[in-house]
UniProtKB/TrEMBL annotation:
It holds the Pfam family LUC7. Residues 268-304 have a biased composition (Gly residues). Signal peptide: none annotated. GO terms for molecular function: mRNA binding. It comes from the Eukaryota. One of its GO terms (cellular component) is U1 snRNP. Residues 319-350 have a biased composition (Basic residues). This is RNA-binding protein Luc7-like 1. Belongs to the Luc7 family. Residues 237-267, 305-318 have a biased composition (Basic and acidic residues). GO terms for biological process: mRNA splice site recognition. PANTHER family: RNA-BINDING PROTEIN LUC7-RELATED.
Length: 357
């Protein structure tokens, strides 16, 4: 991405699709079903895990920073409940990852040599200490890059203590099994990102794993899912109530439009001789008689829906016939003028030939 494209993306993210009066390149609004709701909530796995070992490729739905800016501005005025859609998406994704983790554990159990309960407990102790060292080392490096030197040095001192404990645990594990078996790499599956970790991995390799984009991305996704699940029952209840209120509002608006339409029709059709306001109308002396209110044979209800539609259809056909006749007359006139010009040209050529002879 060029510097110009980066600046354009930043402006889109800040100002939305209405920047400089332009429309967004996808020609859709943030509320369109084709727009990724997880992306609007900044938690789409396709975006978070891009360029990693578990890159999911391009998201099948639309990702646009300008649409996210539009959504964030609109969310301040009205609750769209997109967090529910994002939570359901993340639940499905994490459930699939957890299934892959369990399958990887089963494959390791089938391929690796089975250890006794005592040896397995010692190996697990080594794994736990190694993972803790890797996490603290990655955190210390991050704090050092951010300028928190004192906190980073404090973590490094804790890492030194953990390394001593790990050395003692490795010695106990080595003494509990034959040398030939100890040299074999004992693997375990990371509970967060499903990656394989070895019991003989050094601190640098573990720090790269726990501070890597894949592991941190899964941590971000799982933490976001946990936050969204906190009040999910209340949010779903609020969404149902909001949808019911919206349906009731639309129903009231529809009834008001129909009532206004009926009133307009009654007003336009009520002036006839036998209508609602006529000589023998509903308010007259014979209001309930044969020629009473606006619902009589010649009453003031005006044309009904079907009659009005038929009238409009007839008018449309009449206009089409008039246009067709006008075009036909125009074609005949142009054809007549063309024929007359051809006859004059032919007569001039004939006269010229006669003079030459």
């Amino acid at each position: 991405m060029t510097a110009h494209d980066q600046m354009r993306a930043m402006l889109d993210q800040l100002m939305g699709t209405g920047r400089n009066g332009e429309n967004n390149k996808f020609q859709v609004k943030y509320s369109d079903p084709k727009v990724c709701k997880s992306f609007l909530m900044a938690c789409c796995p396709h975006e978070i895990l891009s360029s990693t070992r578990m890159d999911l490729g391009e998201c099948p739905q639309i990702h646009d920073l300008a649409l996210r800016a539009d959504f964030e501005a609109a969310q301040k005025k009205k609750d769209h409940f997109y967090d529910i859609d994002a939570m359901e998406h993340l639940q499905s994704f994490i459930a699939d990852c957890d299934r892959r983790t369990e399958q990887a554990k089963l494959r390791l159990a089938e391929t690796q040599e089975e250890l006794s309960a005592e040896v397995a407990a010692k190996a697990n102790s080594v794994h736990v200490l190694a993972e803790e060292i890797g996490k603290k080392l990655a955190k210390a490096e991050q704090l050092g890059e951010e300028g928190f030197v004192d906190e980073s040095m404090k973590l490094m001192s804790e890492i030194d203590d953990l390394r001593k404990k790990k050395t003692d645990a490795e010695q106990e594990y080595r003494n509990s099994m034959p040398a030939s078996s100890y040299q074999q790499q004992k693997l375990r599956v990371c509970e967060v990102c499903s990656a394989y970790l070895g019991i003989h991995d050094n601190d640098r390799r573990l720090a790269d794993h726990f501070g890597g984009k894949l592991h941190l991305g899964f941590i971000k996704i799982r933490e976001k899912l946990t936050d969204l699940e906190v009040n999910i029952d209340e949010r779903r209840k609020e969404k149902r109530e909001s949808m019911m209120d919206r349906d009731r509002h639309r129903e009231r608006e529809r009834e008001e439009r129909e009532r206004d339409y009926r009133c307009d029709n009654r007003g336009r059709g009520g002036g006839g001789h036998n209508g609602g306001g006529g000589h023998n109308g509903g308010n007259g002396y014979n209001g309930g008689g044969h020629n009473g209110g606006g619902g009589g044979h010649n009453g003031g209800g005006g044309l009904g829906y079907r009659d009005r539609d038929r009238e409009r259809e007839r008018e449309r056909r009449d206009r089409d016939r008039r246009r067709s006749r006008s075009r036909s007359r125009g074609k005949r006139a142009r054809r007549s003028r063309s024929n007359s010009r051809n006859r004059r040209s032919h007569s001039r050529r004939s006269g010229s030939n006669d003079r030459k002879r």
